Each structure stands twice: as structure tokens, then as C-alpha cells.
Amino acid sequence: MKADPKGVLTGSHYLDGDHAAAEGALAAGCTFFAGYPITPSTEVAERIAERFPEVGGIFIQMEDEMASMAAIIGAAWGGAKTMSVTSGPGFSLMMENIGLAAMMETPCVVVDVQRGGPSTGLPTLPGQADMMQARWGSHGDYEIIALSPNSPQECFWTTIKAFNLSERYRVPVLVMMDECVGHMTEKVVIPKAEDIELYPRRYTKLPPDKYLPFLPEKDLVPEMIKAGDGYKIHVTGLTHDEKGYPVMSWEAQEKLVRRLVEKIRLFADELVDIEEDQTEDAEVVVVSYGISSRVAIPAIQKARKKGIKVGLLRLIIVWPFPEKRIFQLAEKIKGFVVVEMNYGQMVLEVERATKGKAKTTLVPHGGGWVHDPEDIYKAIKEAAK
Amino acid sequence: MLEVAVGGAKMKFWRKPLDLDKLELPQGEIHIIKDRCKGCGFCVEYCPKDVLELSTEFNIKGYHPPYVKFPDECVDCGLCEMLCPEFAIFVKEKKKEVKKVES
Amino acid sequence: MKPTEQLVEEKKIEEEHPMEHILRMDRIPHIWCPTCGIGTAMTAFATAVEKSQIPLNNIAVVSGIGCSGRIAGYIKLDSFHSTHGRAIPFATGLKLANPKLKVAVLSGDGDIIGIGGNHFIHAARRNMDIVVLCINNFIYAMTGGQLAATTPLTANTSTSPYGNFEQPFNLPYLAASCGAVYVARWTALDVRRLSKAIAEAMQKKGFSFIEIICPCSTIYARRNRLGTGLDLMKFYHDNMVIKHGANVEELGIGFQSKIIVGKFIDRERPTFLDAHNRWLKSVLKDKFREYGGPDD
Predict the structure, then answer these.
(1) In this complex, which of A74, A96, A238 lies closest to C90 when CB atoms are compared?
(2) Which residues pair with A287 in a beta bridge?
């Protein structure tokens, strides 16, 4: 279905990443936002607070991040498209309820504008150290989808994509930005509403006496309803059966959790979104995401000038991790150079995916500023030997 | 205080009501779903007419459900139905019969 | 149908409890202990829902974690069993996304006032249009009997094995000071007045709070040598004092002390959504677009 024009700010704008993400949410039809201010994500909330009254949505600043996450899950069950934003410390607070959203199979979007960590860290400076937390943050077994934009224009599109994926898979989707991309101002072109494709919520057409809230369709995702339509369902965070009723048994656990995990894992091929540049003849591939991928570009150009055959593989959908493509490349190339603003998070996935067929080098950075392209170039040179 | 029989039950009055011959007490029929009962005793304790008593028989769970000791005394107040935590007892209004009133 | 089958059918129909259409009968009998008052509180809620005449499709129930939190699993309405303490913000989101729903939060004292204390005071402050029924059994029963924010002084709990020395909350005082528009307290014994109060609260716009004092037999009564739930009910019978409009500051509960019940606060204040729409319309005038609900 097409986007509703009331939320689409068509035109060519000069926006920062946070504001572009807010516009992306509005274009995707988000009508409920609950958040708590935290640098550097506050601008998203501020823009939504300004724009929602014109577009017809409800903005509420909750008392903390746990309430924000609970409120967006409740609002999703009330029938709205919902979103929240946060950064490192707030992300940690939201973890319990992200698990609840995964368990209740609630479509919602959470934007994490990463900053220097751990703990209070560097509130106004970038980091990329929440990537593993995005995947494993909440307790228990579940799968989520996470995306990482590297420009304000991409912030706009990945937020829309996040909403679409959350509806398709009935799972909370995370948009992992970083403070640099969030506070960077660039040209953002927003098209007309009819050029924006949205995935509609998978509401059931079955009558209440035939509908089972957690009976999956062929793609392992059940159809959804909203409260107030007379279905009188019970939705719980306890392990439950198809009716939604809690069941205390290992069989129910096996059935439910296996499905929660497989509904993403078995469809991982559809969830590959990477941008490759010059990887056809490459001997070394730089794997990166977010702002670090832009910082890697001058290093790659310098290496190419010096005759090293190097390419860039940029992750846009970071989780589920595109292991098949990494393995494919691993069989041909000498090594991967992983550039990320942390002390080794996505590099672990790259290493695992290569299955030992190619060397993996990490160019770490504690955060607070971007990499020095010279360090990346040195690592590329080393990997090419 | 006078004790006057109205219908099948006895009622206490401060004075004899002027319309005693027209007075009709509601009558209730108590239904007990024995196997749901957990023997808490709320209904027995708080019935205003002391109609119920815990029986000595066991239900399927091993509890003693109540039984209706004085079926004619029930006045369909519904307190047992509202107090029961297990939804194991409810009252239905008994079909009305015209009863003579004696004082 | 054979004559015996017909007799059984008739008996089955005759044996149907009048509240069964509002209960998930496939999950009855419930998990609560014999002489637990939560079943009674649930009956009062079900009766009130019928009395209030709000269409059943428009009511949603949200509860948290704990014995009282299991109520959501037994009521046949759109019910949500969320995480510990987060029932109130969940209900906030649910209500704001679909304003025509009447949302009731039924949960325990530990869930609403302990871990959920922050959410409680903010929802009351904002006057969210929800009904909060706090089933107070003075203890964290489901996890085995730990100290709660409402446990009276000197009571024995598993984390205060030598007796409680912490001052408990006075819940109606807390609710009233945070701006709740309807504050009442009843015991599980007083079912008629309780269900009338719940029906009143369901009809009222704004944050309504009813504290339901409930016997807990296996945990609170047993730990404190108070007998069974029936003995606690007898205690309520003898020590309950009805004082409508009493001064909320004087409503604290001591260990086996008098319990003052009644309707304490009943006032009017604009709800969050009303204030949101009215204010923004006055500031933005024609540019304001009101949220049209989930089907917009």
C-alpha cells in the first residue's frame, strides 16, 4: 500500500539524521510515539512532538524508557504504528520490554542513536558499541531485525524499511544509528507519497470464533488483531500456546521459541541488504556500517591507487547477519578488514561467517570520534599481504 | 421484635406491617457446582439467612463443598454468588407461587 | 437426541453460572488458593462490567505480574499480561492508540506501587483515562511472601523475617496527592459496594483508583499466624469502618488495625487526551489535526 500523504513532507530538505528519521516515521504512517529524552536521540522526539499535531498522531513523553517501550507495545495492540527512540543507557533500560515485544510478536520500531559508552560514557559523541546488545540485549531466545543507515537520506529510508519489516515479521525492529549520522546535516529528498511503498499490518479476516492469536501462517508469522474489534484475545509474556493462553511445559516452550527464532532465521535470505562497491575483483574486503563505512572510503581509494584490490561491503541490515555472502567472498579473497567504532562486535560475526576460509582483521576504535583513515589503510595493506 | 412467617421463611419486624397480607418474599434456588468449590466457606459464613453449611462429602478435588441446609429460607439476595471466588455457586429466582401469610 | 443426552444437556445449561460469558471457562478452575480474595475481586469486577453497560468489545484489561496479575488470563475481554510493573504504561499506550477503549488495569500492590510506582504517579498526574484496581494483599504473594511497599509495620514476610520496620504507603493518600480523580478503598468482603464503586469508576473519565483489600491465606495469613482467608474476611467484617470523604492523610493501615473504607475523592479534571486536543487546537488552530483512532 502507498503512504498517506498527510505524513509525507515531499520535497528537497536540508535535515540532520535524527530529523530525517522522524520524517521517515511520519511517512511510514507512525501515529504514536512514546519516548524519553536522551542525547543524541532527543531531536527525533522533538521533531515528532512538533509534527504529530499537524499530521494527526499522539506524542507522549513518558517518565522513563521502560514506560516508553511498554507504551509503544500497548499502542501497537491498540492499532497504531508505534516508535520510540533512545541511546545507550536508555537502550539498556528498554531491554526487558523489547523481549516482551518479541514474545508478544508486536510490530514496533526502536531507534538507537549510539553514543560513546559504557554507562553514561560520551553523551554527545559517536559510538557503535551497542551492536551486539541489539541482537542479544534481552534475556532468552528471540530474533530481531536491526538496520544501520550511514547518511541522513538513508535514515529516512531505513526508518520506513524498519516499519515495513516490523509489520511483515511481527517483530520489534531496531534502527542502529550513531551520533555522527544522527547529528549530520545533509540533503534529504523526500518523494511523493505514492512513491513510498508500505507493508500493511497483517490483520486477520477470520471471525472471532475461528481466529487463534498465535497460530502461524505458512511463513511462521501469525495474523494480528487490535483490541476493540471484539476478538477478546489474551496476550501474555508467559510461554503460551496458539490461543495465547499460558502453558507451563517444555513442549509449549519448544514450539513457541523455535517459531520465534525460525520466523527470522529461515527467511534470512530475504533479509539481506548490503551495499557492495568494487568487490568483484577484490582481494581484501572492508566490512563496515554506519558512519565508519563513510570514513573507510578515503582509505579504500588510497589503497586502490597503490594497487591493492580492495572493495567495501556495507551492512544496511545488520541483524540477521548476511553470513552467506560473507562466506561466498571468504572463499575468494585474502581477508576481511572490519571497521567499527567499538572493540570488536560485528567482527565476531564476520569471523564466524568466514568459517576460517579468510583472515579477519579488526580496526577498533573506542568511540568519541571517527577512525583515522590512515589506520584503515594500514590494516588493508596488512591484509593484502 | 416480632417473628413473622412470610412465605416459607421467618422474618423479624419491629412492628406488624400494615400490608403483611400482600408481602411476598423473593425465593431463591441455589445451584452449587460442587467440583469447582475449594471449600473456602465464604458463602456459608456470610449468607444472611444461614441457609448453607459445609457438607461432609468430598468433591473431586477433596474439598467439602457446601450444601443447602434450609432451601426454603433462601431469599435470592445473591451474596453467595458474588462472594464465591470460584464461580461455584449461584442463585436463580424460584418460580413464584402465591403463598398465604400467617402471623 | 437420546433422552439421557437431553437430560445431561439440560443439566449443563442449568448449571451455567451467570458470569460464565465473561470468563474464559476453558481456564477455570483458576490458580488462586482456597480462601484467596482475588477470585472475589474478579467477580466484583465482572459484575461491575455488566452493570456499567459499556459494550464488552470496548473494554480491555491489562495486568502485571503476580497473583493478582493473573486476572487478565481469566477474563474474557481483550486482555494483556505485560511485564512486572509496566501494566500502567502499557494501558496508557493502549488507551491513547484507541481512545474509544475503556482500559482497566487489574494488578497487585507490589506490581502497581512497588516496581510500578513511578508509572502510577505519572499516570495519575497526567489523568490518563484508565481505571486502576490495586488488589492489596500487603505482600508479594506469588514469589513466596516478600516485603511489599504496603506491608504494615511489624508484619512478618520472608524478607523481613524479624518483622517489618519500614513505613508502608498509604495508597489513597498517594493517589489523591498525584491527582487521581476517583479514589476509593473497599475490601473483598464488601462485594456489592465494591462492584458499585468499580462500575462508577468505569463510567468516570480520568484516572480512577480503587484499592481492594484482599485476604491472602497461604502467604500473608499463614506467615503472620492470622488463620485462613476466611479469618481475614471475618477480621475485615469486624474492623472495617466506612467513612466516605475521609481525610486521605489518615487512611494508613497498621498491622491488624481498623481499615477505613469508602469513596474518598470524586472530582473532575481534564484527561490527558482532552487537554492534549484542546490545548493544541487552541495554539495551532486550523493546522491541528486530531488523532482519529486506529482506523483513520
Answers:
(1) A74
(2) A313, A338
Same domain, residue pair A171 and A296:
no
Q: Residues of B at the C interface (Cβ-Cβ below 8 Å)?
A: 31, 33, 36, 38-42, 45-46, 63, 79, 81-88, 90
CATH architecture of B25-93: 2-Layer Sandwich (3.30)
Q: Are C156 and C208 in contact (CB under 8 A)?
A: no
pLDDT at A107: 97
Intra-chain end-to-end CA distance of chain B, in Å: 13
Of residues C117, C157, C151, the one with CA closest to residue C136: C151
Chain B residue with CA closest to C214: the answer is: B85
Q: Which chain B residues are within 8 Å of C40, Cβ to Cβ?
A: 42, 82-85
Q: Strands, E, within C214-258: which ranges?
A: 240-242
Interface of A with C in 74-113 (CB under 8 A): 74-80, 82, 96-97, 100
Q: What is the mean pLDDT of chain C?
A: 92
Q: C residues 37-76 near A, CB within 8 Å?
A: 56-58, 60, 62, 72-73, 76
Write b or e for each residue in A230-239: b if 16 or more Cβ atoms lie within 10 A of its Cβ, otherwise e. ebbbbbbbeb
Q: How many domains does chain A have?
A: 2
Per residue, the 3-state secondary structure of C51-73, as one string, reads HHCCCHHHEEEEECCCCHHHHHH
The CATH number of whichever domain residue A130 belongs to comes to 3.40.50.970
Q: Which helix (H) or strand (E) holds C182?
A: strand C182-187
Taking contacts as CB-CB distances below 8 angstroms, the residues of chain A near C115 are none
Residues near A148 by beta carbon (within 8 Å), at least 6 away in sequence: A158, A175, A176, A177, A289, A290, A315, A316, A318
Q: From the list C93, C287, C294, which residue is nearest A74 (CB)?
A: C93
Type of residue at C37 = G
Distance from CA of C98 to the nearest CA of A (A): 5
Query: Is C108:C141 a contact under the CB 8 Å cutoff?
Result: yes
Query: Where exactly are the structural domains of chain B?
Result: 25-93
Confidence of residue B8 (pLDDT cuts 50, 70, 90): low
**Which phi and psi angles does B5 have, rounded to 5°?**
-85, 125
Are C22 and C77 a contacting pair, CB within 8 Å? Answer: yes
Can you give the CATH number for the domain in which A322 is found? 3.40.50.920
Q: How many contacts, defined by CB atoms under 8 Å, are there between B and C?
A: 71
Domains of chain C with bracketed CATH: 19-287 (3.40.50.970)
Query: Which ipTM value was assigned to this complex?
Result: 0.94
Where are the extended beta strands (E) located within A66-121? 82-86, 108-116
Chain A partners of C127 at a C-beta cutoff of 8 Å?
Answer: none
Q: What is the number of CB-based contacts under 8 A between chain A and chain C?
A: 164
At least 3 CB pairs under 8 A between chains A and B: no
Give the pTM.
0.93
**pLDDT, mean of residues A167-181:** 96
Q: Does C150 touch chain B (CB under 8 A)?
A: no
* Helix, strand, or coil (residue C186): strand
Per DSSP, the three-state class of A262 is: helix
What is the per-residue burial (b if ≥16 Cβ within 10 Å, else e) of C238-272? Answer: eebeeeeebebeebbbebeeebbbbbbbeeeeebb
Band of residue B17 on the pLDDT scale cut at 50, 70, 90: confident
Per-residue pLDDT at C146: 96
Instruction: Evaluate whether C223 touches C158 at the Cβ level (below 8 Å).
Output: yes
